[in-house]
Amino acid sequence: MSLQFLKKTLLASTLLFTIFSSPLNAYKKVLRVGAIPDQNQEILDKRFNLLSKKLSKSLDLEVRYKPVINYVAAVTAFRTNDLDLVWFGGLSGVQARLQSSGAIVIAQRDIDKKFKSVFIVNKKLKLNPISNKKGLKKLKNLRFTFGSENSTSGRLMPEYFMNKVGIKVKDFKGKKAGFSGSHDATIALVNSGAYDAGALNKQVWENNVKNNPKRTENVSFFWVTPEYEDYHWLAQGNLDNKFGKGFTDKLRSEILNLDINNQEDKKILEMFNAKKFIPAKSDDYKKIELIGRKLKKIR
Fold it and tell me: Residue 107: inside a domain, yes or no?
C-alpha cells in the first residue's frame, strides 16, 4: 500500500469526521407544540404558528407546531412524549396529565378562569332562550349534537348540567347524541338543520355571531352555563433536562408576559381571544377531574 494512498485515506476520514461532528449536524433540539383541534384547522394553524414564531425568537430555539387529528391524538402524543407543550381543554388536559408523570400546568387565558358553554337551537324550533337550567328539558326528543367526545365546553360540562335536571343522552331523538368533532362544526350542523340543537364553547359562538353571520343565520342562542375553569397549557415535566436548567420557568414567563400593548403579542392574544395569559396549576382543574370521573371520561 503506497504512502500517497494512506495520506488520501486519512484526509478523507478527517473530513468525514469533521462534517458529522460539526454543530450544524448535531442533534437539533426542537420544542414541539400541539393543541386539541377544537376549531377549523385554518384558524389553529394561524394561531399556533404565530405563537411558535414568537417563542422561537424569545427562547432562541426552534419551536414547531405539530397538528393532530383529534382530541385523543393530542392526549396520546403528550403521553408518548411526542409533544412537549400542548394547549388542552380542561378535560383533555386532565386526561393527559394523569397519564404523564411530572406534567406541569403552566398557564391559562384570562377567560379560562370563568369559562362557559352555550346551548344553541335551530330557529325553526321557535324555542325562546331560557334563564334556568330546568328549561333544558325542552331539548328532550330533539336531534342533539355535542362537539368532540372529549371536549370540556362542547360535551363534558353541557352533559353535566343536563344531567343535573334529569336529562340523559338517551332522552334525545334516536336515544343518542351526535358528536360533531369541533365547536365550529356544531354551529354548522345546527345551522344546516342536520341537528336541532347543540352545545359549544361560548367564546367560539360569540366570535361566529360577530364575524360569520351567515354561519349562524339559522341558529338561536338558548342557554348559557354557569362558570368553570377550562383551557390551559400543559408542559412535559422533563423540559429542563431536555433544554437546560430553568427552561420551564422561562417558557412559562414568555407565555405569561405576552403583552396586549405590543403589536406582535396583540395578534397572538387576539387569536387566543384573550387579553393575557395568567398563572394556573393542576388543582384549578380538580372539579373538572371529578366531573370527568362521574361521567366516566376519566377512569
Answer: yes
